[in-house]
What we know:
about 160 residues, single chain
Amino acid sequence: MAEKLFDAERSALARGETLDQVLDRNVNEVLQEIRVAITAVQVLFAFLLTLPFQARFADLGVFGTAVYSVTMTSTGLATVVLIAPVSFHRMLFRRRQKAAIVQFADRSLMIGLGLLLVGVVSAVLLVLDVVLGRWPAIAVCAAIGVVGLTTWYLLPLRRRTERPS
């Protein structure tokens, strides 16, 4: 946590803000990011909750049922992890713990987005296995997974390690 606080202090100095102003802004930014991510999770989760009640669900077979289980589990976990910062914030409200809230929310978002990516890829696999067949579905999902990993993690991490110009 000391490293994150140091980053906030450095940001405050560079932007002419107080530490409290930086932390307030960071809390608002991270909560906005959570709002965006949770919307995607809610839509996917709602879709998944209805599937077992469809007539063709019984025809999925072992592979389809396993993929559905992975999709449902990862999406359920993503929901819990992405909502966790809201509860964390509420439990620490007015306790001067904004740095801890920002740090927790940052980690929750990184983990939640990873779980969401697993949910998205496996949901597409579930649908495309029925529509296109197994191997084309796996190929498309591998491409989606690579694009997701690249755009959500690898490119930002690469940029993060570069020195600012």
